[in-house]
Give the backbone structure.
Amino acid sequence: MLFLINIIVAGLLSGLMYALVAIGFVLIYKASGVFNFAQGAMVLLSALTFVTLNEHGLPFWLCFIITVGVLIVAAVLIEFLVLRPLVNRSPDTLFMATLGLSFVIEGLAQLVLGTDVHQLDLGIPDVPLKLYGLQVSDFDLFTAVVSILLVAVLALLFGKTRVGISLRAVADNTLAAQSIGIRLPYIWRIVWSVAGVVALIAGLLWGNRQGVQFSLSLVVLKAMPVLIIGGFSSIPGAIVGGLIVGATENLADIYIGPLVHGAVSDWFAYILATAFLLIRPNGLFGEKPIQRV
Amino acid sequence: MRFKRSLQTLAGVLAAASVGLSVPPAHAADHANEQLYPLFSYRTGPYAPAGIPQWGGIRDYFNYINSHGGIDGVKVLVQECETAYTLERAFECYERYKHGYQGAQVAALFDTSSGFDAAISDEARADKLPVVSVAGGREDAVDGAVFPYQFPVLFDYWTESSIVINYIAKQLGGLDKLKGQKIATVYHDSGYGRDTIEPLAILAKKYGFIDIEIPVADPGEQQQAQWQQIKQQGVNWVFLRAWGVMTPVAIKTAARVGFPSDHIIGDIWSGSEEDVKPAGSAAIGYKAVTVFPSGSNFAISQTLKKEIIDPGKSDLRDTSKFGSVYYNAGLVAAIIYSEAIHTGHEKFGNRPLTPAEGQWALEHLDITPERVAALGATGLLSPLKLSPEDHEGEPSAKIQQWDGHHWVVLTGWLNGDRALFHDAIFAKAAAYAKQKNLPPRTPVTN
């Protein structure tokens, strides 16, 4: 029984890591209706920038600030070079643009910062605490706290601030938002910058666990089923989706894997997401689109 | 004004480029006196950290050989083709270089991916082009009678299984102590990873240990469930057959569940500096099999340091990779290639070899201990003798351990129980021949 609980707890904690990546997608989707495929590349860029600065002897806080600066510059450039020329184009066009953007970011990150594997140590022990037999580490607890804080901060940003309300207005109806004086480029720069900071946090936590290397950009593949299950436009949905994906893929690996003589976690989350698409196409917390017919 | 100047600069660059483009292309036979080495690299993508030092080792060795006149006077022309470790790009590269390049002939293709090695089998047979996979490739291709154009030289994963089990037995005090031990193999769920399921079942049957097979889905960034399972089942030893990010995640997750790192023995592709450094202190004590021992104290390494690295002629942008496991893997591949070409020269004369001559040369390759010493590769390269019947040689490997900064070699060259697997491997080859309806190969007599 304890084994089963440990498997579920481990899965839930992994799910929080997935959710951190998924939140970056949600932010941009909420503000612009764009599915930003480049979020994984942003995770790689942010972690690689941070660890490179850190390896040059800069203190943690300074690396963090400089990396945030780099991500803000990237957000401004993306808005100016990619999004602005495509304003009022279909979401499919914008999605394809972010797909291309992901290749550009990955390529530039490797070209400038190299392809080496880096160790990233945030100084948080990742060994089991053995709380009542549970295999939970300080790092797991830290990840959980960071995720909860992040959701709280973003909920405040979206719900209580002027910028947040503007973001929601743009997402709801871009033309109407522009007609009441909301400046689209400004909003996009803000939201891509915030998504960049979320990518940095995700990159640091993932990097601490697996090292900073190209495969960080592949965590994007884990975020997709999380988004489908939780809903593309809901930050709490990303968390709940992450928890569901993390726990079920762990259980599937243990109990279904032996039946098919292989690992199933790479595709099981997608099976689950497909089931959700059939039953609840907007996910658990996604907004139901209302259209005039 | 500044904008105008920029435009002028751009115009100048374009003009220079157009002049460059107007120069007639190199004549088709410009490289007729050189031997082509197509290098299917991956300097981009998730596996670039494993690739870049290897290409450094290969290029630096050929650079050194060419600076001394080439292999018996024949210079090696390296043409690199980026694959990003994808099959489709590797196939494109194959099509581009299988007939040579601007007059330079290709005698053998040294491939750089186990997946591609398996996938190219039929094409290579049709093109009659020898394909060499150093310490990788399909097991049954050892049988030269069925696979005349494939050479899985130096090492194979079946023998590796045997070496690992023998090593564990030695730690326990003898092969009889294996009985009842729980040995788990945590493997990358791919053709490469699944390759040891069969030999480990044979070994478990022979020695009485409990063989537990645990797959991990690619790329392996989450392994908590698998390591919880290992802990719950009371596993004594783990044989880790990982690739890329799966290795550091495995080592760190093992530490999280409290599994001792010195009871994990990694595969040859889980035993580089790039595999252990991201895992930090969790990797201290971790062991791995190696056929490419790290270090720069080998005689050939010292020569390269003096003639290539120190004068700034290395392909490595980061020369701290010199002497790393992957750099030495490239170095070993380049030495084997050079020796094969040298073998061919002894029969056909000192000129670029054709694919047919390359095949003959590989099948008569004999790098004796004396020759290894003469090459300055003692300790780096194990002796290698191939034949038309045996396309692998006598596989051997060492066990190394990570001390937090360096790999420390714990053993000499270890040989596995190859005879134990002989029948199974050759039966697989025979089954393949039957399935593909391949005619028996005419015996090579000279």
